[in-house]
Amino acid sequence: MAGSTASLRAYVITRLLLMIPMLVILLTFTFLILRVAPGDPVSTIMGEHGDQTVINRVRDELGLNDPILVQYFTYLRDVFTGNMGTSILTSKPVFQEVSDRMPATLELTFASMIVASLMGIGLGVLAGTRRDRPADFGVRFFAAFAYNIPIFWLGLILKLVFAVNLGWFPVSGRFSPRLMPPPTVTGMYTIDSLLAGNLVDFADAVDHLILPSLTLGVVLAAFFARITRVNVIQMMNSDFVEAARARGIRRSSVFFRHALKNALVPVVTTMGLTFALLFSGAILTETIFSFEGMGRYVFLAISYRDYPAIQGAVVYYGIIMVVISLLIDIVNAFIDPRIRY
Amino acid sequence: MATIYARGRTSMAGRLLGTFWKQSRTGAGIAVWAGILVVLAILVMAILAPWIAPFDPNVKVANPETPPGGSFPMGTDRSGQDVLSRIIWGARVPLSIVAVSTILSLVIGLPLGLFFWYKGGRADRLLVLVMDSVYAFPGLLLAITIAAVIGRGILNISVAIAVVYAPTYFRVIRNHVSSVKQQTYVEAATALGIPRGGIISRYILPNVSQNVPVIFSINAADAILTEAGLTFLGLGLPPGIPDWGFDISLNWQRFDYSWWATFYPGLFILILATALTFVGEGLNDILNPLLRKRAPPPAGGA
């Protein structure tokens, strides 16, 4: 037992240390893509016919006239000291802008993860326990299509039906303009309004979150439904479930305590990587629902070649992805003692 | 020796083909055939576009936003162009991008997965780390960044998408290779002193290559969605080229009024991506039932 705790600790520490090279690789990759590629950010902002001396001064200020290696190390140093520079487009600190918008995206992503898990695991269990019966075919059919729906298209349809035509949900935005947003603690309106004890605000924030998170969650739900189904079937046919049944343990107990618990392990394993899928989809979902998060920000930053903003955003995304996958790997290591370095 | 190799290879291919035919009437077999038929139909539609499209896709042929009916079964869009003709022509871009990008990522990912495993040691570990970092990063975001930097054009989007999907090939191939590597027959071949190149080409590659069609079609489905996402965001294509995702980006603001100009292009994206998934999943069931457990989650896309 002591040995297993020690190896778990070793695993967590190794995994923590691995975060650093992963981040450096990500940073290098971004740097290379942005700096080596043709095109000049300053001329993009100031127009083709901007004053050459002004352009040169701005380039000097941004360090764009330095040798590429100097730029690279300055960039790495800045990132690790928490200095993400100033947006060329808005002249505001990138860190500030990104911190203002990331909570919206995280709120959307977490809500979608909840939708996807509940829906996906529910459907997967339904299909897996009723193998080759109509419910199973229904779920498989749904999963095959839902997995391939273009997110933005689904968002538009849901918006047209439930917001425009039926009027059940708000059409866009994160919060009703008639209400004052709750005082900022986490930046996520749902959590902040609960912390402030304001249920009206909370209901409003949830109302705005339902359609976007449903849009983003359905695709992932299809994915979860598929893995859950396969694993439930496998577990229900496994020797230990048969043994538990033979011992006369109740069906429901066999299912929940033996089969389901084991069937969910692969779902948890894939969760870390599926966050990347959600972040990608969030860019499209935010566009459709005018949900002011990171997706919109990154898109604008990229369109204008706002290098500091793009870099800051990528670093931010990178850190969040690395932390999330770290947490999920640790959870996995707890669940499955075979996962060790 | 040579005869043994030869027999090994034909029986391999023969066995795969045999299983495939035998499975033709099972659920998986039907899924594959249905998927292949739909993909082929869309391909034929794209190739024959100049002859079967009723109108020039880039010309105003009626009042803007004419509802479906009469000579415009899918209506006209905001610019008065025929939606059906744009859909027929619009199949060309996603199909070419998907073909080019999946082949590119295969060309990058497969050899890296095969050979770096053999190198082992630091080079292998570093490559795994690099590939994992790319793999863990939101795919669409990466594709947007690359597409924005290298500029518009079909080849450019293909490169952007290929970079996103190359790690999938690398991971799957490398994992598969490391499990094949431990098989007794590979150990035996090594003990017999067969050079590494020979082992790779005669034992490892045939074994690993059965995964390729599966990853290929599943990735192709993902790539369709990523391509649509990119063009929907207005990136990647020069104006004037009909493309499903791009057409949605031109019309979606008017979705509540002229739904047809947005609905039909999206429907075709869904149909093509689903058909490709059917091909991939079906092949997966037939060729490699064990792979299912290890199949990676999608690398990104929308």
How would you portray this structure in words?
The complex is a heterodimer of chains A (341) and B (302). With 341 residues, chain A is an all-alpha fold. Chain A folds into two domains: 1-89 and 313-341, no CATH class; 101-303, Orthogonal Bundle (MetI-like fold). Chain A contains 14 helices and no strands. In chain A, helix 5 (94-129) crosses helix 9 (199-236), helix 8 (189-195) crosses helix 9 (199-236) and helix 10 (239-246) packs antiparallel against helix 11 (251-263). The longest helix of chain A has 38 residues, at 199-236. The radius of gyration of chain A is 24 Å and the shape is globular. The mean pLDDT of chain A is 80. Chain B is an all-alpha fold and 302 residues long. Chain B has one domain (12-64, 71-293): MetI-like fold (Orthogonal Bundle). Chain B is built from 14 helices and no strands. Chain B has helices spanning 2-22, 27-47, 49-52, 83-90, 92-119, 121-136, 139-150, 154-181, 184-191, 196-209, 212-232, 244-251, 260-287, 291-294. In chain B, helix 5 crosses helix 11 (212-232) and helix 12 runs antiparallel to helix 13. Chain B is elongated. Classes of the chains: A mainly alpha (341), B mainly alpha (302). The interface between A and B is large, with 55 and 50 residues.
In short:
The complex is a heterodimer of chains A (341) and B (302). Chain A is mostly helical and 341 residues long.
Distance between the termini of chain B: 49 Å
Q: What's the number of domains of chain A?
A: 2
Give Rg of chain A in angstroms: 24 Å
Helical/strand content category of chain B: mainly alpha
CATH class of chain B: Mainly Alpha
